[in-house]
Amino acid sequence: MNIRALLAEFIGTFALTFVGVGAIASNHIISGDSGLVGIALAHGLTLAVMVSATAAISGGHINPAITFGALITGKINITNAIGYIIAQCLGAIVAALMIQLSMPTAALAAVSLGTPALGPGVTASMGLIMEIILTFFLAFVVFGTAMDRRAPKVGGLFIGLTVALDILIGGPITGAAMNPARYFGPALLGGDLQHFWLYLVGPLVGSGLAALVYHNVLEEE
């Protein structure tokens, strides 16, 4: 198992969770609302720079759903995939802990520690479909811009942009997690794991579908 790759995945997921939760809480402090555009940019920019920084070391997955897609298409073996997912979840948990130590408790409580959640009037089935579709977009772009050997070496930028556009549409619906680790860390420390299944199944299904479509239909051997 590649320890450097595990550390890269830990740091990347830590950054995504720390900045994501911090941006949600900071926007609430400043404006009293979610500040959707700012939150979308915070997540998108963080992922863009962290994928770019870790791509040469670990492939820049920073998301258990992306690792799952890579696993079922043979781009990572089961041992490394398990290691990646553990590192990603630990990164999110430690980030949630650190944000609790570095931001006002009242601000974090007001936004439920930045945990993705279903919006008003959104049913679990609606949320599941939304997470599947959003993660399909994300994984499709990851395969097309980072995993395909023909891809230009600018995958991080387009992956970050995909996260931002997904949040712009899905943020008010499900929080647009697209990432089980990004949900799990804040949910675990915030004590709200009610819809954990949704934020696990949706991203895994979406990423798996995109990975299979791209690998079997669009990617050249």
Task: Explain how this protein is built.
- With 221 residues, this protein is mostly helical.
- It is 77% helix and 0% strand.
- It contains nine helices and no strands.
- The protein has helices spanning 3-31, 36-58, 64-72, 78-102, 105-110, 124-147, 155-174, 180-190, 196-218.
- Helix 6 (124-147) runs parallel beside helix 9.
- The mean pLDDT is 94.
List keywords for this structure.
about 220 residues, about 75% helix, single chain, mainly alpha
Provide a concise account of the structure shown:
This protein is 77% helix and 0% strand.
Structural class: mainly alpha
What is the percentage of strand-forming residues? under 5%
Mean pLDDT: 94
Low-confidence stretches: none
Helix content: over 70%
Largest sheet: none
Rg (CA only): 16 Å
N/C terminus separation = 26 Å
Number of helices: 9
Let me know the number of strands: 0
Please trace the helix and strand order, writing H or E for each element: HHHHHHHHH
What is the approximate shape?
A: globular
